[in-house]
Write a structure and sequence with these properties.
The protein is an alpha/beta fold. The protein contains nine helices and seven strands; from the N terminus they run ααβαβααβαβαβαβαβ. Strands 1, 2, 3, 6 and 7 form a five-stranded parallel sheet that branches. Helix 1 runs antiparallel to helix 2. The relative contact order is 0.17.
Length: 231
């Protein structure tokens, strides 16, 4: 599928000057594959994990931010383990927060170095590699990468394959990076629950702690637990 998508896009770009409408139609599948987090036409995206239990994987993006200590206290009180997909530039500036995350029994994974959310999908190959490698250089070893906003890049899967890494997406999201109401956030997440779902939430906003706590309680009220392993 990857070869087909890239071939159609190349043809579409080549004929855009002569047949702009047809050219655009041929490029649309590539744009969808790049910008829709769950579309796997360019390569595999992990959106669920195998389990026979009613449990989900809690992942938290965009740290480590100033609320990290309070968030770890919250997760400890609620007995929940999470994977923190962190920005390398923040991890480098706050290595003590990374150590604290690990000490509390959570895991840390790669969320790019500078989180170029508006341009990641169109970065050249060396820039994609730098985003991965610079973050890997300041966090514990990980095989997991989540791209900014879930956007992909035509050079991403080859880069991850060369590094023995997986692209991790999500199957339950609430757009809580901008949505402020914890009840709305929890409601959106619980509508997408299923065994092995990957839940994505964010830290660093003034409402993040309330949203995460409300969502955890809502998930448990639906009869789901949380993945215990941090691997």
């Amino acid at each position: 599928m990857r070869i087909v998508i890239l071939t159609l896009a190349a043809i579409g770009i080549a004929i855009t000057f002569f047949a702009p409408l047809i050219g655009f139609v041929l490029v649309v599948p590539l744009l969808l594959a790049l910008l829709h987090p769950s579309v796997q036409w360019l390569g595999p995206v992990m959106t669920r994990y195998p389990t026979d239990a009613n449990e989900v994987w809690l992942t938290i993006d965009d740290g480590p931010t100033d609320d990290t200590h309070a968030l770890l206290d919250l997760l400890e009180r609620l007995d929940v383990r999470a994977t923190f997909f962190v920005k390398g530039i923040l991890a480098s500036a706050h290595r003590d927060r990374i150590d604290e995350i690990i000490a509390h029994g959570h895991s840390v994974a790669n969320h790019s170095h500078t989180h170029p959310s508006g341009t990641f999908w169109c970065l050249p190959p060396r820039a994609v590699a730098r985003q991965i490698d610079q973050c890997n250089g300041v966090i514990p070893q990980t095989s997991y990468f989540r791209s900014p906003v879930g956007f992909k890049n035509v050079f991403l899967h080859p880069a991850l394959k060369n590094r023995g890494m997986q692209l991790v997406g999500f199957s339950a999201r609430a757009f809580d990076a901008v949505e402020r109401d914890p009840n709305v956030i929890a409601s959106r997440i619980t509508k997408s629950l299923q065994p092995g779902a990957i839940v994505v939430l964010h830290q660093g906003r003034e409402w993040s702690l309330r949203a995460i706590e409300t969502t955890i309680h809502a998930i448990r009220e639906r009869g789901y637990g949380f993945r215990k392993t941090n691997k």
